[in-house]
Every structure is written in C-alpha cells, then in structure tokens.
Design a protein that fits this description.
The protein has 3 domains: about 90 residues, 2-Layer Sandwich (Pseudouridine synthase), CATH 3.30.2350; about 120 residues, Pseudouridine synthase (2-Layer Sandwich), CATH 3.30.2350; about 60 residues, Archaeosine Trna-guanine Transglycosylase, Chain: A, domain 4 (Roll), CATH 2.30.130. The longest helix is centred in the N-terminal third of the chain and has 12 residues. The chain has 6 helices and 16 strands. Helices cover about 20% and strands about 35% of the residues. The protein is α+β, with helices and mostly antiparallel strands and about 300 residues long. The two termini are about 15 Å apart. α1 runs parallel beside α5. The model has no long low-confidence stretch (mean pLDDT about 90).
C-alpha cells in the first residue's frame, strides 16, 4: 500500500538532507519523497519530509519561516563560515562583553541585505558557488534581501555565544555568524546549529532515523505522520460531500460558498483524508488545483 503523508525527521549531524531522503526511500520503500528546506551537513534538527502524493504540497512551504538554536565561536572566521571549514586567518583575542555582543546583534534583526557563503548552493553564472569555491576560483555572489525576525544572544561562555533566531526562507545563519564576527573585528563562525522549527513543524514532532526504521519494520510508519488537519494551519479547511468529491476527482470547479474570502481551501473527505488544495477563481468558485486522490 503506497504511503502518503508528512513526517518530520530529526536530522543527525554529518548527514546531508539528501542523505536523509535517500535513507527514507530505502526504509519506507517509497521513491516519491522530498524535504521542506535543506539543512547543512553540520546542522541537526527539524527536516520535514513529504511522502507520496503529499510531495505536491511542497509549493506551499517554499517561503516558510525557520527557527534555530546554535552556537557562534569568535576569534577566527572560516572559508565555509562554519566549523566544517578551514580557518581564514590566525586566531585573534576576543574582548567583547555579553552586553556589547547583544548590542552588535541588533544590527542583524529586521530586513537586511546578506551575502550567502561562498560554499553554498547559490549559483554564479549558472554554476553552484560551492563548486567554484572548491576549485579555488573567484566566487562573487550578489547580496540578497532576507528577514531576520529574531536574533537573540542567550548566553556567552568563553569565546562562544549561544543564540536563537527566527528567519525568513533563504536566510543563511552561517552568514549572520560570519558577519557578526566581521562587525566585532575578531572574526567568527557558526560552531553548531539545530533547527527547531519549519513552518508548523516543531522539534517535538521529529523522529530519529532509528525510530522511523523501527516503525517501518513493524508496519507502523503511518503512525509517525503529522495529522493532515494540522498541515498548513493558516489555510481554512472543509469536509466535502460526495457530490463535491466527485467533481474534485475529475478536476471540476466546485462551489465553496462559506470560503469566498479565502485564496486557498484544504478539502477533506472525512476527518483525515486530504483530497485537494482548492484555489479560488472568483467569488465562491474554486478550482481543485492540487488533487491528492486518484482520478
């Protein structure tokens, strides 16, 4: 029986996001699996996985807010802006108080222009920047506008500080760490990072690779899925009658009078079967644009 659902993996350190997807394909026996937001290999934490027909929901999460806890080490920058890279220069003395650090961090809150790291997937003339950086070729990446909704320094221990942040999609926390070190004049890099949330998915929803493998071995993989009613909570939902379901199955327009002000509506058959994402055309007329049931 094919699997269709959304599951949250707790990505381990040293794995790429693609490594997790590849492992899940093997564990779950399902080829159609994607993730909602790449994590660097060093990072751990929340990696939502869309499985089977639920991969069609990916488009609704492209601009999702992300939250992190992490550690920044001061004293030297690295070429990758994190602890996996090589030092970009000799280590410097760090003479900054917690209050000074918190004041400096304020410059990175709000809508800012940020240059992605040279070791990143950002493309330079069609080539991923990291490929150029590995060849030691010049990497010139244009700054991009991102939004940092929270960047709070929570503690300082020696040459390191602990922080939490909430950022818009496309924000590089590595760049925040690097730029903070530049601002303070002592260099810095991201020492550790744990993602605690993506959109509505939280760390408490996450399962280790081992837990997912054990559930699959016991034919209980679906027990780890997020309940469909909890997905995309900002979008209203409706339970459709048989006539409406019949129209949706064949891609016909449907009338959802009570949702004339909504742009999208989640349509369910029963309590837990998400059958489509309907897009408003005009008034209360909706088109079943993303259909999740067989026609």
């Amino acid at each position: 029986m094919p699997l269709n659902g959304v599951m949250v993996a707790n990505k381990p350190a040293a794995w790429t996001s693609h490594d997790v997807v590849a492992r899940m394909r093997n564990i779950l026996g399902e080829r159609s699996i994607g993730h909602l937001g790449t994590l660097d290999p060093m990072a751990t934490g929340v990696l939502p996985l869309v499985i089977g027909k639920m991969t069609r929901l990916h488009q609704f999460y492209q601009d999702s807010e992300k939250s992190y806890d992490g550690t920044i080490r001061f004293g030297f920058a690295t070429d990758t802006y994190d602890a996996d890279g090589d030092p970009a220069g000799p280590e410097q003395a760090v003479k900054v108080t917690l209050e000074e650090l918190r004041n400096a961090a304020l410059a990175f809150v709000g809508t800012i222009r940020q240059t992605p790291p040279p070791f990143s997937a950002k493309k330079v003339k069609g080539v991923p920047a990291y490929k150029l950086a590995r060849r030691q070729q010049p990497v010139e990446i244009e700054p991009v506008e991102v939004e940092v909704r929270e960047f709070a320094i929570t503690a300082m221990e020696g040459n390191c500080c602990h922080f939490r942040c909430r950022v818009s999609s496309g924000t590089y926390v590595r760049s925040i760490a690097h730029d903070l070190g530049q601002k303070l004049g002592c260099g810095a890099h991201l020492a550790s990072l744990r993602r605690t949330a993506v959109a509505e998915f939280r760390l408490e929803h996450a399962h280790t690779i081992e837990e997912i493998a054990e559930a699959a071995a016991n034919a209980q993989s679906a027990d780890l899925f997020i309940h469909p009613r909890q997905l995309l909570p900002a979008i209203p939902s409706v339970t459709a009658d048989d006539a409406t379901l019949g129209n949706i199955r064949f891609g016909r327009y449907v009338n959802l009078a009570e949702f004339s002000g909504a742009r999208w509506v989640k349509v369910f058959a029963g309590q837990s079967n998400l059958v489509c994402m309907a897009h408003r055309v005009a008034g209360s007329l909706f088109h079943p644009k993303v259909v999740l049931i067989e026609r």
